[in-house]
Amino acid sequence: MKLKGKSIIVTGSSQGFGLAAATAFVQEGANVAICARGQEMLRIAQKELARCATGKAKVIAMPADIANPNDVDRLVEYVVSEFGGVDVLLCNAGVYGPKGPIEELDWYDWAKAIGINLNGTVLPCRAVIPHMKKNGKGRIIIMSGGGATKPLPFLSAYATSKAAVVRFAETLAEELMDFQIYVNTVAPGALNTRMLDEVLEAGSELVGEKFYNEMLKIKEQGGTSLEVGTSLCVFLASDESEGITGKLISAVWDPWREFPERLDDLIGTDIFTLRRIIPKDRGKDWGDG
Fold it and tell me: What gap in Å lies between CA 187 and CA 148, rounded to an integer?
């Protein structure tokens, strides 16, 4: 019951990783609010979560487009009225967006993907921060992914927006540090979810042979267990993660369970962050940077 009594919002939580994270939260005793655009799937998810809830944990649901400011404001107001506040926000909603060479993509679709992934992260953060400041503490967890740390040819909207949300999280962490509101991003690993199926359905001619083959291999092998990423999210939502902020954390590769013992190394350093690489970082003797 690491999260007993905490109130948590999970966006994009009617299926996939968002639903898995919401399940982990309610099993740890949290009150959880889920949202997504599809009303029927959201209703089914709410029933499923209610069955998993432990203790007196509550589950509420509200259809919302997290890229729409009015929807987001209504969602947060509803959660505060039902739960009395917001302790944790998990920004999970996201899309790959259009696939193919940038010059051939429909501009509306490209911009819409940026809106969902970037604006759909910033808007919920903006809405919950006043409530967290009032409480004198809070946790914001933002889902990142491979698109944040390496180029993804033919998935430019996804890669661009995911890099942007990581830098937004790093910036927000600095803004909120004095309020004991901690902000981190999570890379959950290669998940076998509907987004992977979407890439395979698009085919190698749109997403590129290399990326297609990588995704096909993940599909065949089953991908990273959802539990790996959800365990990290529970950790970041709990009091165990006190003081950890502004980090991009790989659920699979980083020793995040050791972080409480490594606070002195983590605080005020650029460990586990996005940074510019200069020649000397790669053993070269030219370029002062």
Answer: 9
